[in-house]
Amino acid sequence: QGKFTLLRDTRTDGSFLVHHFLSFYLRAGCKVCFVALLQSFSHYNIVAQKLGVSLAAARERGQLVFLEGLKSCLDLLFGEEREEEQTGQPSPLQFISESASNLKALFDFVQTSLTPTGGDSWKGPVLLVDDLGVLLSLGAAPVAVLDFIHYCRVAVCSQLKGNIVVLVHSHEDSEDEENELVVNSLCHHSDLILWAEGLATGFCKDVHGEIKIIKRASLELRGEQDHVQIYQYKIQDKNVTFFARGLSAAVL
């Protein structure tokens, strides 16, 4: 409880980690607020069904609050009628149509979604974001994005004793300085980093990539060092196989 987990990918697609955490927390009976900026609801639902979880059922029973970023952006940009207008609540992505990159509406959405009500019996709140870099592409300033994560950490991790899982993309030779600034800042603030990387030698059908698991040393324990484990992995239809480097079944 109270942990911030950063999912980071380089030269590969780390979305399999998002699907894992989404199905994991729903099966565990947690209240999940999923800020999905990259794909549609049906995409996540199809993958979740393969993992034995129904997102539609979770949403109906109030366990899952799903923000479909693609649809919200289109509604804002093309001025279609929205449910938010009917309920009197601003869109969580209101900053797109405003001059200032203020993510307060998005934070209010997260806080409202995860604050327990009298009838809630969920085990703990979870905020899941896929993918944080999309906010930068939509015009939010890096400082605004980092402020948003900071306030979410205070509200979700500290006050509600919940967890936050965020996916970001990164490239060592990227010229996108704003994205790299956000990624590096989040690495310093996270409790656990799962860093998926493509193989330096290129594509291999039996080894899809390498994952670095970095357990950050507590700031309170001086002299402690980060604990790093490195595995290779292969993504299958319904699960992922992990093994030590060079010990793929194809090699052995």
Automatic annotation (TrEMBL):
Pathway: tRNA modification; 5-methoxycarbonylmethyl-2-thiouridine-tRNA biosynthesis. Gene3D superfamilies: P-loop containing nucleotide triphosphate hydrolases. The keyword Cytoplasm applies. InterPro entries: ELP6 (IPR018627), P-loop_NTPase (IPR027417). Keywords: Cytoplasm, Nucleus, tRNA processing. The keyword Transferase does not apply. It is found in: Cytoplasm; Nucleus. Its main location: cytoplasm. GO terms for cellular component: cytoplasm; elongator holoenzyme complex; nucleus. GO terms for biological process: tRNA wobble uridine modification. Belongs to the ELP6 family. This is Elongator complex protein 6.
